[in-house]
Amino acid sequence: MFLIMIIVSASLLRVWDLGSIGFNGDEAVYSGQSATLSGNEESAKYFSIYRAHPLFLQFIVSIFFANFGVSDIIARVAPAIFGILTVIFVYFIGKELYDKKVAMVAAIVMTIIPYHIIVSRQVLLDVPLSFFATLTLFFVIRYLRRERDVYLLYFIGAASGLSFLSKEVGIFVLIASIVSLILVKKLSLKKL
Predict the structure, then answer these.
(1) What is the mean pLDDT of the chain?
(2) Is there a contact between 120 and 84 (Cβ–Cβ < 8 Å)?
(3) How many C-beta neighbours within 10 Å does residue 131 have?
(4) Does the N-terminal or the C-terminal CB of the chain have fewer CB atoms within 10 Å?
(5) What is the Cα Rg of the chain in Å?
(6) How crowded is the C-beta side of 11, counted as CA atoms within 13 Å?
(7) Other Cβ atoms closer than 10 A to 33
(8) Taking Cα atoms as reference points, which of 167, 137, 171 lies closest to residue 152?
(9) How far apart are CA 80 and CA 92, in angstroms?
(10) What count of other Cβ atoms lies within 10 Å of the Cβ of residue 17?
(11) In a 3-state reduction of DSSP, which class is residue 26?
(12) In what helix (H) or strand (E) does residue 75 lie, and over which residues does it extend?
């Protein structure tokens, strides 16, 4: 029941009046790239498909554009979903590391922290990057507690790879995961 209340609260804070403020510069570029990816010919005049970053978020937003039309609100739905999912996995990390009370406090803080709310309401690469970094941390913790579940190493690799595909600095998520597993002597060369 508590997790449902957190999800609803996080959703309301991240989706309420989503289109009230126009795009900033980066949002315009990423949304323009997304519109071009979705086949919008008007956007193709002004936005090339590839400028500087990996295109994971732009690809996801382009799917939304292809299905629901090109608009500011539709562009911001995907980052809002990533922001909500981040809150959920912060809860699971707290529960895995400590207990349900710590998980609840962590989820509440993540739900209401202004910076995360503001960023989750914008078409920025940092939102999926933070989600996949959080997801990677969750899988690392799970693996450290269940070393026999070697399949979790694949999940760590996939989540950290998606961090990199979200934004280039996400490569450090993979490096940090490998180094931390080696330091706690839970990762052998064979498993790597």
Answers:
(1) 92
(2) yes
(3) 25
(4) N
(5) 18
(6) 7
(7) 24
(8) 137
(9) 19
(10) 8
(11) helix
(12) helix 72-97
